[in-house]
Model the fold of this input.
Amino acid sequence: MENIQKQIQDITLHATEHDLQLLEQLLKSFQLWKSGNNTTFISSLLQMERKISDDDCEITIPISPLLYNTLHIVHGGMTATLLDTAMGVLANSLVPEGYGAVTTQLNINYIAAGIGEHMVCTAKMEHKGSKTLVLSAEIHRSDGVKIAIGTGSFLVIEKKNIG
Amino acid sequence: MENIQKQIQDITLHATEHDLQLLEQLLKSFQLWKSGNNTTFISSLLQMERKISDDDCEITIPISPLLYNTLHIVHGGMTATLLDTAMGVLANSLVPEGYGAVTTQLNINYIAAGIGEHMVCTAKMEHKGSKTLVLSAEIHRSDGVKIAIGTGSFLVIEKKNIG
Amino acid sequence: MENIQKQIQDITLHATEHDLQLLEQLLKSFQLWKSGNNTTFISSLLQMERKISDDDCEITIPISPLLYNTLHIVHGGMTATLLDTAMGVLANSLVPEGYGAVTTQLNINYIAAGIGEHMVCTAKMEHKGSKTLVLSAEIHRSDGVKIAIGTGSFLVIEKKNIG
Amino acid sequence: MENIQKQIQDITLHATEHDLQLLEQLLKSFQLWKSGNNTTFISSLLQMERKISDDDCEITIPISPLLYNTLHIVHGGMTATLLDTAMGVLANSLVPEGYGAVTTQLNINYIAAGIGEHMVCTAKMEHKGSKTLVLSAEIHRSDGVKIAIGTGSFLVIEKKNIG
Done:
């Protein structure tokens, strides 16, 4: 606790208003994760909002400086995380009780820079086999420009065998 | 500031010792990022340690619950982030002054679960053209097991045109 | 010429009716190629029939034992050839006069076995930049089952610089 | 038979010496395939020569105009066929008796033009699981230049379930 108070003091000493907003957002991610409202810290950090139907999964995230690469656009790894999550959520919703779907392969084509207010990823099923699933997804930014497309392979395995 | 103090109180009220360690780590990532020691928040969050030579780039990260997916193994998106960063750092070290290399495509095969103490990603150059670069990378975990391999395409562009 | 007549004799000596049909088909591919009706021997061999519009390119091929792998289903390399050709034809139709589009990357997910009477590949544009193009394609077989999906990256280059 | 003789006459009427050599090569592919010396027509057409060990598989093919695309370099689909075959041969050598390995995903980065006398593809195992295999491969041309790299995913299935 002392360390944490010291860290907060250190950060806030030189912080701009914008820095403090980002810190608040970061702490909120931690709170959400620990409260169990979001399933992973990453999902909380990216402030993922999910809509899932039988056929597709849509995840929206706001674009925050916490997700930037050195060029101040969304880091390709964060785009990959969004794609993998949207496909993974849909894949896991489609396997039988007691089974999970783990990503075995992911391919992404980056098309345009991740800038603007938010990004929306839509994943859909391409193939549902008993052992493997194939999904595709695409991401658009708030001005409507498509910024990435991807495909993923998933292996269906019994949950007790995962990890 | 008031919000932040309230958030800290709220978090620490029900926190275990382990939770507090993770919070400290998270705040340290923020500090590092703001101090400019690491180039992005993501790199700080993943606690990336880089070694770069003419031919390859090696990045090591500790495995933390902050990187977990719902199965309590490293999130595939974090593995993708590590691969993309190691390849991107090497690619950017190889283009002429005033130019940058942006990822246009990333393919990953996930081989084994991301568990254990840390992960090491090694990227190497496969092709260096004047317009495009191709790199490959692989990730091993601390027990020596290879957990992912990947390839990436990069487009060489003038820095003033990026973003 | 003597060699060729000897080869024909040797082949036809032990040939079944079906073998002779395949030989006829093969010779027809060679004739078509040499007559310039098809642009490449491969296109002739696969008996590609193209329909191209502003937005997509559709190529249909009959399934022949000449395209089989050791399991007597269409060889994955032939499926890749069909995908690459459909995307490449569309890409090349979209670049300015004097420019060509060369494949720099191809990713394919194989979903179901290539069997039945024919395969239809439909390619569409995902991104048209001045330097790079991204396309996607999918292949269905005659019974309507989707057997593969793929994406491709293309680099736009001046024709005089190709090869 | 009459058709075939007519086709041969038609082809040889306007054929150059080089055309006749290609026709001989084509007929030789058909002979080899039918004699059962090569496992598929495609392997015969590409004149594949295989060396396989416990750890890798090397396939060499001569570059022939039969493999050209419209730019008179090796068709990307033929490069894909070579990669898929080298990986597939190795994969199938590594699964238990009664099982086969089918390609579920293939990713290729094309690096340089396929020109010169021949191409050599070397495939190696990256991961051998009980259900899935991951392999990688690279292709060099006769002047030593690397022209493509690729990775492939394979699913292990009982032979009676294939096709």
Q: What stands out?
A: Residues 46-161 of chain C form a domain with the Thiol Ester Dehydrase; Chain A fold (CATH 3.10.129.10). The helical segments of chain C are 2-13, 17-35, 41-45, 76-94. Chain C touches chain D through 60 residues (CB under 8 Å). The longest helix of chain C spans residues 17-35.
